[in-house]
Amino acid sequence: MLDYEINEIGNTQEYCVIWLHGLGADGHDFFPIVPQLNLPAQPGIRFIFPHAPRQPVTINGGYVMRAWYDIIAPDLTARQDKAGILRSAALILEIMDDQIRQGISKDKILLAGFSQGGAMALHIGLRETKGLAGIMALSCYLPLADELPVPEVAQEGNLPIFMAHGNYDPIVPLQAGVMSKDMLTKLGYAITWKEYPMEHSVCEEEIADISEWLRQFTTRA
């Protein structure tokens, strides 16, 4: 199983957010964001920040770094590393299954991620829709979009998805995020979409919006 960092809110954790970092970062990257979310102690939330495996990344000259999958070309949807995506998905699902064994219901587990981590959150979450609490995908795109299964009618609109992007993102262009959002909307998913005047990063307004969205799904009846 992947190594990960844990940051918890409250004494008893009822919910779990598995938050995946971007290319070249690690599980410490978003660890400090938890207190900035100013979430209440009840219901308790366990934030898990996994460390991606280390592997060579083609677009970075084969340099070995933490990555959920290889990036082969500047066009993120060209020559996608399907094997790497599937391999990392299996490792992340191990963490989810372990949390379920520890007593957290699947319908109280949320997948989140930034950049490449957000792409993984979408890839996994859209294939694990039944019972999942939701998906939070920041500054990213939908990988292997042409292989996405068509959702069952009963699931359409029942999987909360928060997507956010910077207007001036030079790494994952805004249009890549918009196209992914539009595709999911056409499939019937209810998307909360936000744009911010920033590059490939996270801003204070975005953190406030994330906090509000998390409060909504953790206080659902």
Description:
Helix content is 28%, strand content 24%. By secondary structure, the chain is an alpha/beta fold. It has one domain: Rossmann fold. Strands 1-3-2-6-7-8-9 form a 7-stranded mixed beta sheet, with helices on both faces. The protein has a two-stranded antiparallel sheet with strand order 4-5. The model has no long low-confidence stretch (mean pLDDT 93).
Short description:
With 221 residues, the protein is of the alpha/beta class. It is 28% helix and 24% strand.
**Number of strand segments:** 9
Instruction: Please describe the biggest sheet, giving its number of strands, its sense, and whether it closes into a barrel.
Output: 7 strands, mixed
Shape: globular
CATH class, named: Alpha Beta
Poorly predicted runs: none
CATH architecture: 3-Layer(aba) Sandwich
Order of helices and strands: EEHEEEHEHEEHEH
Span between termini: 33 Å
CATH homologous superfamily classification = Alpha/Beta hydrolase fold, catalytic domain
Strand % is 15-25%
Number of helices: 5
**Overall pLDDT:** 93
Number of domains: 1
Helices and strands: which structural class? alpha/beta
If you compute it from the alpha carbons, what radius of gyration comes out, rounded to the nearest whole angstrom? 16 Å
Task: Determine the fraction of residues in helical runs and give it as a percent range.
Answer: 25-40%
Strand order of the largest sheet: 1-3-2-6-7-8-9
CATH topology: Rossmann fold
